[in-house]
Design a protein that fits this description.
Layout (H helix, E strand, L loop, with lengths): L14 H7 L2 H6 L9 H14 L6 H5 L4 H12 L1
Length: about 80
């Protein structure tokens, strides 16, 4: 998605969210692909992002944890 051309579209939307932004005929013409980020790097990044953003919905939960290890345990428990 060219974010310079479509400035109203956020850069971190899911395909479903992007599909909702465009008429079906236009969305169907796009070539779609995805990058899968290394899961460990993704969680390290997410942990720091949430800690640095007090308005994030999980900030209070994660900031009360004393370590990244506790965060990982919490994330695993959320997935099951």
């Amino acid at each position: 998605m060219n974010h310079y051309k479509y400035k109203h579209v956020e850069p971190h939307l899911t395909a479903v969210e992007i599909r909702e932004e465009f008429p079906q005929k236009i969305f169907d013409t796009y070539y779609k692909f995805a990058f899968v980020r290394n899961p460990w790097d993704w969680q390290v990044s997410m942990y720091h992002y949430v800690l640095e953003n007090p308005n994030h919905e999980h900030h209070s939960i994660i900031s009360s944890m004393n370590s990244f290890d506790k965060y990982v345990e919490w994330r695993v428990s959320q997935a099951t």
